[in-house]
């Protein structure tokens, strides 16, 4: 193992299907019953998948509003993060990430031997635009990664803010990687109709969140012709399996189904908001942050104690305990899951109040 990699930790995921899973920002139900499996009967699983996955790309392009010729399908967004780093970075290159943000951005850059600078978000988790532009000027980064809406804060940055970052990077010859994994919850991407207007913008989208297809591992890279051609030179030729591509294409072709599914999720997100607002109102010092996603972030002193308490009651949420973030993140679930969450949060808050 290269010395530069020996300090990295594996991204471990423990399968716990006997739990109420409110930790991974997944959709809370499956659309598999809407798939016509008779169409899969003729699938040649003894043959390599079609390299272009044309039907999948066409269906996603229509759904998301991006030109199909500027879309590459991949094995989840994680693969694209890795390939972008391979495409752009030499050892010693500078990369900017926000703090907090998705941890795989930093890991992908470090694997390539790049130097990563973290830019702390403002106290309210808004984008420190002037600081970002100053770091771009000082560091001359090759890449900057940024999720919008942000994971784990739920913050949605403005289109003008993002465009200022794009322009600042372009002046230095850098690329912005804009991860829109949760954009379906916030609305239409402001860059959907003008991806070709930018020389240095890569957009990442996924089927794992609002579209409810996390198990299929479908991620999409959208960029201008030059970047698409360059990354096509290094990506594996068969990185999307045939079954995932066929199921994904079929579901994405059912726009009415996906629209109804999104509305159902938005209803559950609103219900979760009521639950966590009620909870935060009972806990001294707790802060609930606004969200444009399917999860809510709560900062509180007893974050680990709350996480352990819920885990004992078969409810799993996400805990953050690093230097910049002492908080929990809770994803939307079903009505039944929300009711159990509400009861457990009430019980914990009553115990917490007695201890202070």
From TrEMBL:
Keyword Cell inner membrane part of the UniProt annotation: no
Any GO MF annotation of the entry: transaminase activity
Cofactor(s) this protein cannot do without: pyridoxal 5'-phosphate
SUPFAM superfamilies: PLP-dependent transferases
Gene3D superfamilies the record matches: Aspartate Aminotransferase, domain 1, Type I PLP-dependent aspartate aminotransferase-like (Major domain)
Pfam families to which the protein is assigned, alphabetical: Aminotran_1_2 (PF00155)
Record's keyword terms, sorted: Aminotransferase, Pyridoxal phosphate, Transferase
Domain Aminotransferase class I/classII large: 45-345
Domain of life: Bacteria
Protein name from the UniProt record: Aminotransferase class I/II-fold pyridoxal phosphate-dependent enzyme
